[in-house]
Amino acid sequence: SGKIQAENPGEKEGASGSEAVETHKHSAQTAVQETGRIFTELIKSIEKRWSEATKLIRAQEKAAVNRAEEIMKNLEREIADQKKRDDETEVLSHTEDPIQYLQ
């Protein structure tokens, strides 16, 4: 039973070939997972920046509206004061004794 078994070179290459295929599959899967992780982080970062930008725009909008409302109130007060002065001037112009009216 001193048989020498000849190796089939195709068997060895087949085994190492399937190992190479598995290695490539594993590398591809790792690359897909890593790419997915990176894109997920990018999406989260973009969403965070978008949220921050939206909050900033809303805050600026609120400040601008408040300023505009304050200016309008001041103008309305000035108009009312001017109307009151105009009315008093009108009354004085029709009064025979403006000094007595003012007292």
From TrEMBL:
Keyword entries, A-Z: Ligase
Keyword Ligase: yes
Residue span(s) of domain TRIM8/14/16/25/29/45/65 coiled-coil region: 18-103
A Gene Ontology molecular function term of the record: ligase activity
Span list, region Disordered: 1-33, 81-103
Signal peptide start and end residues: none
Record bears the keyword S-adenosyl-L-methionine: no
Xref: InterPro entries: TRIM8/14/16/25/29/45/65_CC
Ranges of Basic and acidic residues composition bias in the record: 81-97
Name this polypeptide is given: E3 ubiquitin/ISG15 ligase TRIM25-like
Organism per entry: Clarias magur
